[in-house]
Amino acid sequence: DIQMTQSPSTLSASVGDRVTFTCRASQSVRSWLAWYQQKPGKAPKLLIYDASNLESGVPSRFSGSGSGTEFTLTISSLQPDDFATYYCQQYNSYSRTFGQGTKVEIK
Amino acid sequence: EVQLVETGGDLIQPGGSLRLSCAASGFTVSNNHMSWVRQAPGKGLEWVSVIYSGGSTYYADSVKGRFTISRDNSKNTLYLQMNSLRAEDTAVYYCARVYDSSGYGWFDPWGQGTLVTVSS
Prior knowledge:
The structure holds two protein chains of two kinds. By secondary structure, chain A is mostly beta strands. Helices cover 0% and strands 48% of the residues of chain A. Chain B has strands at 3-7, 11-12, 18-25, 33-39, 45-51, 57-59, 67-72, 77-82, 91-99, 106-110, 114-118. Chain B is globular, with a radius of gyration of 13 Å. Chains A and B meet through strand 5 and strand 9 of A and strand 5 and strand 10 of B.
Protein backbone atom coordinates (compact mmCIF):
# COMPACT_ATOMS: atom_id res chain seq x y z
CA ASP A 1 0.00 0.00 0.00
CA ILE A 2 1.08 3.57 -0.63
CA GLN A 3 1.56 5.42 2.66
CA MET A 4 0.72 9.12 2.87
CA THR A 5 2.41 11.25 5.53
CA GLN A 6 1.26 14.78 6.33
CA SER A 7 3.23 17.41 8.21
CA PRO A 8 2.85 19.07 10.52
CA SER A 9 0.16 17.24 12.48
CA THR A 10 -0.99 20.52 13.99
CA LEU A 11 -0.38 24.06 12.82
CA SER A 12 -1.17 27.16 14.87
CA ALA A 13 -1.79 30.29 12.84
CA SER A 14 -3.57 33.63 12.86
CA VAL A 15 -6.19 35.08 10.56
CA GLY A 16 -4.43 36.57 7.56
CA ASP A 17 -1.41 34.25 7.75
CA ARG A 18 -0.11 32.39 4.72
CA VAL A 19 0.05 28.72 5.65
CA THR A 20 1.53 25.77 3.84
CA PHE A 21 1.47 22.11 4.74
CA THR A 22 2.93 19.05 3.16
CA CYS A 23 1.85 15.59 2.07
CA ARG A 24 4.46 12.98 1.16
CA ALA A 25 3.81 9.67 -0.56
CA SER A 26 5.87 6.52 0.04
CA GLN A 27 6.12 6.09 -3.73
CA SER A 28 5.19 8.18 -6.73
CA VAL A 29 1.49 8.92 -7.15
CA ARG A 30 2.08 11.09 -10.22
CA SER A 31 -0.28 14.06 -9.87
CA TRP A 32 -3.12 11.92 -8.60
CA LEU A 33 -3.67 13.60 -5.29
CA ALA A 34 -6.65 15.34 -3.70
CA TRP A 35 -7.01 17.61 -0.68
CA TYR A 36 -10.04 17.75 1.61
CA GLN A 37 -11.14 20.03 4.43
CA GLN A 38 -13.02 18.56 7.38
CA LYS A 39 -14.66 20.43 10.24
CA PRO A 40 -15.69 18.72 13.49
CA GLY A 41 -18.76 16.54 13.08
CA LYS A 42 -18.92 17.16 9.34
CA ALA A 43 -18.03 15.21 6.23
CA PRO A 44 -14.85 15.99 4.32
CA LYS A 45 -15.16 18.56 1.54
CA LEU A 46 -13.12 18.35 -1.66
CA LEU A 47 -10.80 21.32 -2.19
CA ILE A 48 -8.23 20.25 -4.79
CA TYR A 49 -7.93 17.35 -7.22
CA ASP A 50 -5.14 16.27 -9.56
CA ALA A 51 -2.72 17.99 -7.17
CA SER A 52 -3.45 21.53 -8.32
CA ASN A 53 -6.98 21.81 -9.75
CA LEU A 54 -9.30 23.88 -7.59
CA GLU A 55 -12.74 22.37 -7.13
CA SER A 56 -15.58 24.59 -8.32
CA GLY A 57 -16.77 26.94 -5.58
CA VAL A 58 -13.61 26.67 -3.48
CA PRO A 59 -12.07 30.07 -2.68
CA SER A 60 -9.01 31.00 -4.71
CA ARG A 61 -6.93 31.47 -1.54
CA PHE A 62 -6.50 27.69 -1.61
CA SER A 63 -3.88 26.28 -3.96
CA GLY A 64 -2.12 22.97 -4.40
CA SER A 65 1.14 21.97 -6.00
CA GLY A 66 3.50 19.07 -6.40
CA SER A 67 3.87 15.78 -8.19
CA GLY A 68 5.49 12.43 -7.63
CA THR A 69 5.97 12.06 -3.89
CA GLU A 70 5.76 15.58 -2.46
CA PHE A 71 2.76 17.85 -2.43
CA THR A 72 1.75 21.07 -0.71
CA LEU A 73 -1.51 22.82 0.11
CA THR A 74 -1.28 26.58 0.62
CA ILE A 75 -3.84 28.97 2.05
CA SER A 76 -2.72 32.42 0.99
CA SER A 77 -4.57 34.36 3.69
CA LEU A 78 -6.12 32.29 6.45
CA GLN A 79 -9.76 33.10 7.16
CA PRO A 80 -11.84 32.22 10.26
CA ASP A 81 -13.73 29.59 8.24
CA ASP A 82 -10.47 27.80 7.38
CA PHE A 83 -9.74 26.47 10.86
CA ALA A 84 -10.25 22.77 10.25
CA THR A 85 -8.38 19.53 9.56
CA TYR A 86 -6.98 18.95 6.08
CA TYR A 87 -6.39 15.54 4.53
CA CYS A 88 -4.56 14.49 1.40
CA GLN A 89 -5.61 11.39 -0.55
CA GLN A 90 -3.76 9.52 -3.29
CA TYR A 91 -5.63 7.79 -6.07
CA ASN A 92 -2.73 6.24 -7.93
CA SER A 93 -3.54 2.88 -6.35
CA TYR A 94 -6.88 1.21 -5.75
CA SER A 95 -6.47 1.56 -1.97
CA ARG A 96 -6.92 5.34 -2.30
CA THR A 97 -5.07 6.04 0.95
CA PHE A 98 -5.36 9.20 3.03
CA GLY A 99 -2.83 11.06 5.08
CA GLN A 100 -3.38 11.33 8.83
CA GLY A 101 -4.39 14.98 8.57
CA THR A 102 -3.11 18.43 9.51
CA LYS A 103 -5.19 20.36 12.03
CA VAL A 104 -5.11 24.14 11.63
CA GLU A 105 -5.71 25.83 14.98
CA ILE A 106 -6.15 29.43 16.00
CA LYS A 107 -2.95 30.91 17.40
CA GLU B 1 -28.85 19.41 -5.86
CA VAL B 2 -26.51 16.46 -5.52
CA GLN B 3 -26.95 14.87 -2.11
CA LEU B 4 -26.14 11.66 -0.26
CA VAL B 5 -27.87 10.60 2.95
CA GLU B 6 -26.61 7.63 4.97
CA THR B 7 -28.71 5.68 7.46
CA GLY B 8 -28.45 2.45 9.39
CA GLY B 9 -25.71 3.11 11.89
CA ASP B 10 -26.23 1.56 15.30
CA LEU B 11 -24.66 0.00 18.39
CA ILE B 12 -23.98 -3.64 17.57
CA GLN B 13 -22.27 -6.46 19.42
CA PRO B 14 -19.04 -8.00 18.16
CA GLY B 15 -19.78 -10.70 15.61
CA GLY B 16 -23.03 -9.07 14.61
CA SER B 17 -24.26 -7.77 11.26
CA LEU B 18 -25.54 -4.42 10.06
CA ARG B 19 -26.58 -2.92 6.74
CA LEU B 20 -25.93 0.71 5.93
CA SER B 21 -27.88 2.59 3.27
CA CYS B 22 -26.96 5.67 1.27
CA ALA B 23 -29.79 7.36 -0.63
CA ALA B 24 -28.71 9.56 -3.51
CA SER B 25 -30.51 12.49 -5.08
CA GLY B 26 -29.54 14.73 -7.97
CA PHE B 27 -27.69 11.99 -9.81
CA THR B 28 -28.03 8.30 -10.70
CA VAL B 29 -26.06 5.88 -8.52
CA SER B 30 -25.87 3.19 -11.19
CA ASN B 31 -24.23 5.60 -13.67
CA ASN B 32 -21.48 6.50 -11.23
CA HIS B 33 -18.76 4.80 -9.21
CA MET B 34 -19.60 4.85 -5.49
CA SER B 35 -17.56 4.20 -2.38
CA TRP B 36 -17.73 3.84 1.37
CA VAL B 37 -15.08 5.58 3.48
CA ARG B 38 -14.88 5.31 7.26
CA GLN B 39 -13.38 7.32 10.09
CA ALA B 40 -12.75 5.82 13.51
CA PRO B 41 -13.37 8.21 16.42
CA GLY B 42 -10.64 10.85 16.52
CA LYS B 43 -8.78 9.17 13.67
CA GLY B 44 -8.17 9.67 9.96
CA LEU B 45 -10.03 8.48 6.89
CA GLU B 46 -9.93 4.95 5.48
CA TRP B 47 -11.32 3.84 2.14
CA VAL B 48 -13.50 0.74 2.61
CA SER B 49 -15.08 -0.31 -0.67
CA VAL B 50 -16.04 0.73 -4.19
CA ILE B 51 -18.69 -0.36 -6.68
CA TYR B 52 -18.09 0.71 -10.24
CA SER B 53 -20.84 1.71 -12.62
CA GLY B 54 -20.30 -1.56 -14.43
CA GLY B 55 -20.91 -3.49 -11.21
CA SER B 56 -17.37 -4.54 -10.26
CA THR B 57 -16.65 -4.33 -6.55
CA TYR B 58 -13.44 -3.98 -4.55
CA TYR B 59 -12.63 -3.90 -0.84
CA ALA B 60 -9.93 -2.83 1.56
CA ASP B 61 -8.03 -5.80 2.97
CA SER B 62 -9.35 -4.94 6.45
CA VAL B 63 -12.95 -5.72 5.44
CA LYS B 64 -12.54 -8.20 2.58
CA GLY B 65 -14.74 -11.24 3.08
CA ARG B 66 -16.85 -9.54 5.74
CA PHE B 67 -18.37 -6.51 4.00
CA THR B 68 -20.39 -6.40 0.77
CA ILE B 69 -21.16 -3.29 -1.25
CA SER B 70 -24.22 -3.25 -3.47
CA ARG B 71 -26.79 -0.92 -4.97
CA ASP B 72 -30.51 -0.89 -5.77
CA ASN B 73 -30.98 0.97 -9.03
CA SER B 74 -34.74 1.30 -8.56
CA LYS B 75 -34.19 3.06 -5.23
CA ASN B 76 -31.07 4.96 -6.34
CA THR B 77 -29.45 3.70 -3.14
CA LEU B 78 -26.06 2.31 -2.19
CA TYR B 79 -25.63 -0.30 0.55
CA LEU B 80 -22.91 -1.74 2.73
CA GLN B 81 -23.65 -5.10 4.34
CA MET B 82 -21.30 -5.58 7.27
CA ASN B 83 -20.93 -9.04 8.83
CA SER B 84 -18.68 -10.45 11.55
CA LEU B 85 -18.25 -6.97 12.97
CA ARG B 86 -15.26 -6.24 15.19
CA ALA B 87 -14.49 -3.48 17.66
CA GLU B 88 -12.06 -1.99 15.15
CA ASP B 89 -14.93 -1.46 12.70
CA THR B 90 -16.29 1.24 15.01
CA ALA B 91 -16.38 4.40 12.90
CA VAL B 92 -18.45 6.96 11.11
CA TYR B 93 -19.19 5.53 7.69
CA TYR B 94 -19.49 7.93 4.77
CA CYS B 95 -20.70 7.18 1.28
CA ALA B 96 -19.21 9.20 -1.55
CA ARG B 97 -19.26 9.40 -5.30
CA VAL B 98 -15.97 8.56 -6.97
CA TYR B 99 -14.62 10.72 -9.78
CA ASP B 100 -12.02 8.73 -11.72
CA SER B 101 -11.24 10.99 -14.65
CA SER B 102 -7.67 10.27 -13.56
CA GLY B 103 -6.29 7.39 -11.56
CA TYR B 104 -8.62 5.56 -9.23
CA GLY B 105 -10.41 8.80 -8.43
CA TRP B 106 -11.23 11.20 -5.66
CA PHE B 107 -14.41 11.48 -3.60
CA ASP B 108 -17.08 14.11 -4.16
CA PRO B 109 -19.64 14.66 -2.78
CA TRP B 110 -19.82 12.92 0.59
CA GLY B 111 -22.81 12.08 2.72
CA GLN B 112 -23.09 13.31 6.29
CA GLY B 113 -22.04 9.94 7.71
CA THR B 114 -23.61 7.34 9.99
CA LEU B 115 -22.03 6.03 13.20
CA VAL B 116 -21.42 2.33 13.71
CA THR B 117 -20.36 1.31 17.20
CA VAL B 118 -19.26 -2.28 17.79
CA SER B 119 -19.22 -3.04 21.49
CA SER B 120 -20.57 -5.54 23.99
